[in-house]
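Rotation project, supervised by the postdoc (A.L.). Task for the rotation student: set up a whole-complex structure prediction and record inputs and outputs verbatim in this book. Inputs entered:
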Amino acid sequence: MSDAPVRVIFLGGLGEIGRNCACIEVEGRLLVLDVGIMFPEPDMPGVDLVLPDLTFLRENADRVDGIVLTHGHEDHVGGLSYLLRDLEAPVYGAPLTVGLAAHRVREAGMGKRAEFIEVADNETIRIGPCDVEFIPVTHSVPSAMAIAFHTNQGIILHSGDFKIDLNPVDGRRTDLSRMGELAMTKGIRLLLADSTNAEEPGFTESESSVGVTLRRVFAMRPGRRIMVACFASHLHRIQQVVDAAELSGRKVATLGRSMKNNVELARQLGILTIPKGMLIDITEIDRHPPGQVCVLSTGSQGEPMAAMSLMASGQSKFVSLGPDDVVVLSAHPIPGNEWGVGRVIDNLHRRGCEVVHSGHEPVHVSGHARRGELSTLLSLTRPDCFVPVHGEFRHLKHHAELAVTMGVDPAQVIQATDGDVIRLDGDGITLEATVPAAYLYVDGAASDVDHGILRDRQTLASEGMVMVVASVDLHEHEVVAGPEVLTRGWAGKTSEEILTTEAADTVRKALEAALVEGNHDVEGLNRVARRALGRYVGTKTRQKPMIVPVIVAT
Ligand SMILES: [Zn+2]
Ligand SMILES: [Zn+2]
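Outputs recorded:
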């Protein structure tokens, strides 16, 4: 077997929750592991989503043998359609994972460029020079996998997103015995593991515990209509809602496009069981007494255009909420979404609804392992080397420290971040190099929105804009039209008139002075106007709006 070093290139997800993407290099060939998106943060106005930097993969497209998916969450598969523009390679994953990913790829019009290959639990597939083994794990979407890469430098085990749920809804447990077997026979050279809950002590509760709460909540509200919002990909949660609805004699309707699509896909794959005749169309709910209706809705994160927000603000075409309705928010807000969720809860109360959420009822549990489970995985796999993945910087740090307390040699624990290239050879792991790993912002059809544009948007949003337009005669050295000062979102109406007249005078004087001094190029005059206007606005108002000079020469 070759003793060539193996490399892991981290392109996203190490330093933020989202846009997970890594690349494993074995004997010069590349395997991509997940291509996710990140949802924009509040300081990214107008951005729809954030992608990993795909420069490295684009430049090495001819070396990529395959794309391996751990599970169907957006932060792992949502960026696939963008990567497929740059390279063509088969995509491997569980049937549900591939189904969820393929749906998005087709929506983006990239269906023809993708070849999807379904893999079964515990299947091993040869991709390029590497055997890739898919090991079942429990998570907040069914069919999640850990991946073992059998390389010439030994086994690299990636946990995927996981928890150790001993009583999962579908009975499919995290395959600890296989991980232990690999550790005992061949040994785990390098473990890469989910750090999301690395700061949380103890063990994450079983998903089944949510079912108990849901059944109780449903049973205690006879005669009232119940709406439940959860992630559309959380099919185990959806199954438990369906079960609670069935027990309390309710029909179920879906609301929101992704909820409808995912329920359909999961039923086809046999992942979701809904008794015959129980699923009704959302347009039919009023034909049934309120106590016999349960609506499954999208929008548990307070997304402004999702079904739950529309219902809460009275804009839904299908459901009008009132004091007899019960709304269950079966999710935690992802960091950054608290404000949106809070507003939805407030609006629901304004309509008189009863709101049941995770703040006062256990209607949600996490899909990620806490410290107890992370220690269990470390203890079971006994890796030679360890790199924490999937987390903000603080999560990665806590996970790295935990690995050391669990006996991994501190010299073989690296807290890597996006763009780092880790080399694994006979001596262990080292941080070898870096590759580009900037945030790639997508806004509508444009994926070339950069930091400068975001800075401009922030200035426009917080301070407004002041623009000056004038034309100058470069031969006669005089201002022939304007300056006219126009503003958007800047000063109040009463002060604006005085300010703009004075500002225009100031700019005129500055331009005339510059022309007399012999400044005869338009670019230079634009600079003069910007400086004069900026200084005037700054002294008069102590504000820093965007200053836009438009000086044209006649
Ligand atoms: Zn996940
Ligand atoms: Zn994830």
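Student's summary: The pocket of zinc ion (ligand 1) is lined by residues 71, 73, 139, 161 (CB under 6 Å).
Supervisor addendum: The CA atoms of residues 242 and 274 lie 7 Å apart.
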